[in-house]
Amino acid sequence: MTATATSARSDLSELGRSETALRTFLHGLPGVDQVGAEQRAAQLGTRSIKTTAKAQAIDLAIRMVDLTTLEGADTPGKVRALAAKALRPDPADPSCPHVGAVCVYPSMVPHVAEVLRGSGVHLASVATAFPSGQAPLEVKLADTRAAVEAGADEIDMVINRGAFLAGRYKEVYDEIVATKEACGDAHLKVILETGELATYDNVRRASWLAMLAGGDFVKTSTGKVPVAATPPVTLVMLEAVRDFRAATGRQVGVKPAGGIRTSKDAIKYLVMVNETVGPDWLDPDWFRFGASTLLNDLLMQRTKLKTGVYSGPDYFTLD
Amino acid sequence: MSERVAVRKTYKLFIGGKFPRSESGRSYIVQDANVALSSRKDARDAVVAARAAVKGWAGATAYNRGQILYRVAEMLEGRREQFAALGVPGDEVDAAIDRWVWYAGWSDKLPQVYGGANPVAGPYFNLSAPEPTGVVAVVAPESPALLGLVSVIAPAIVTGNTVVAAASPSAPLAAVTLAEVLATSDLPGGVVNILTGRLAETVPTLASHMDVNAIDLTGVADADLAADLEVKAAENLKRVLRPAPADHDWSADPGITRMTTLLETKTVWHPKGV
Fold first, then answer.
1. Lowest mean pLDDT among A3-7, A183-187, B186-190, B247-251
2. Residue B146 belongs to what domain range?
């Protein structure tokens, strides 16, 4: 890995110029040892995190949550309620930190923006014809610009999986570059939709492609296909951002999304981050959880640690 | 032909329709058998399983719940020998089977007896209907091992509650065998969960658990522990059934108090439109 990265260091920025160079580079990335990655991810999930370390991990995980609602049935009232929850996840406890961001569809951005203004909670919007990404480029870019103008400071774009799987890497690269440009100052998270990429090798290639094209975050999934974030996939992506920083000096964030529902799962991911890329990434600016039900479980566990008695879902808002 | 290797049985917990060992890995010995010694975390897992089962069980029709309780009686009928081998007297098994049948009959009758139309001074239909309270923790009496356990579980579940039961610590084998009956009776997983082991380890967790809606302290013989559990239960206003007196006659007509204590009453005002 390192050898490839070093040899490529000088001309990484030139790769996007041609389809051939991009293909040669991405296919030159070493393959992922599937059994090894799965075993490593499973092994990191066995760590026991208790008492004060657990309390710290739970608070960190709350700060990393991208509180998400991406439903056709979203209404202005519903997303405003969600934004209020993002500011004060546990109204009964002022010491509870706020979440990292709220993530909604572009049409809902103005309603959330008025609640979050000046709070420090980021406002993420999905864009580029989420979740399929199957729309003409002009439409995707207009989608992105509209979200940014409405007040989103983070954009979650989807890559064109059809083009990626067909091997048209340059097309995917150019789309990310164009979207990044349309974002302006907003952070760009690139959704790889790993559930549709089929292999870990593809996940590694897509991660590198997204980072080379200028993505600020790589995100696993839309949450709209059956297979969402899994520990091995996240491990592969973490390794990619680690190697990318070693090669270029630029740090890229990681966001597993979908399927993370319990505090236990969240803490396993934090252990994986710490062991794979180190404490530099243990920060809401560099690691996020795309989740909705996770937050309530984190709050229940937090309450359990504070009061000593098990809490129940009746005491936290439904969303 | 060589002699058969003995198949030794471990008596495990019953949580969410499955038979796991205690997460603590501990066991204790009763009547030469290994029985799981459950921990605080087993109690937590059991409550999660019971909560997950509430929607389906409370939403089932009363008729369907009655049928399933009757099915439990049917299955118990076929296991007489197994209970006899554990030292449960035959007439206690009979009484336990009869109790299932008796409670099965109440499933669609209790709302008629305990709810109804209220006379009000206005142009309204005013109707009260009993509804299940949710997750109920029950502590089975020390003895009789089988009849006592059936007498606390059946009245809780017949109305649509789900149960986490702490079995008699000194006679858990009958409880685990009853779990095997329940597991083969069309009873959805998680409606009844059975914990074996020391009451002082699991019951305080259940009493203070904010996601448990009622607690039946029938089998708590220690008065201090019972008082402490009531204090814990008060935190989220759990419905409480007090401990039964030591000389309680379990073969007598149980009455309907056990069922009605574990219910909430929903009252609806509906305009007559005159």
1. A3-7
2. 11-271
CATH code of the domain covering residue A166: 3.20.20.70
**Residue B121 maps to a domain:** yes
Residues of A in contact with B210 (CB under 8 A): 309-312, 314-315
Q: Has residue A167 been placed in a domain?
A: yes
Report the 3 state secondary structure along B54-65: HHHHHHCCHHHH
Q: Tell me the nearest-neighbour CA distance from A315 into chain B, angstroms.
A: 9
What does the mean pLDDT of chain B come to?
Answer: 96
Residues of B whose CB is below 8 A from A92:
none
| A219 has catalytic annotation | yes
Chain B hits for A315, Cβ within 8 Å: 210
- Residue A74 designated active-site: no
Listed residue (B181, B185, B140, B142) closest to B164, CA to CA: B140
Q: Does residue B4 fall inside a structural domain?
A: no
The per-residue pLDDT for range B194-218, each reduced to its tens digit, is: 999 999 999 999 999 999 999 999 9
As for the ipTM of the complex, it is 0.86
> CA gyration radius for chain A?
19
Indicate whether A316 belongs to any domain: no
**Total domains present in chain A:** 1
pLDDT at site A319: 73
**Would residue A105 count as lying in a domain?**
yes
What CATH code is carried by the domain that includes residue B46? 3.40.605.10
Assess if residue A88 is contained within a domain.
yes
Residue in A140, A189, A255, A268 annotated catalytic: A255
In which domain, by residue range, is A159 found? 2-307
Q: Is A167 on the interface with B (CB under 8 A)?
A: no
The CA distances from residue B95 to B139, B153, B193, in Å, are 20, 14, 22
**What pTM was computed for the model?**
0.91
The answer to whether residue B3 is domain-embedded is: no
Give the count of domains, chain B. Answer: 1
A310 touches chain B (CB under 8 A): yes
Quickly count: other Cβ atoms within 10 Å of residue A15's Cβ: 22
Of residues B107 and A7, the one with the higher pLDDT is B107
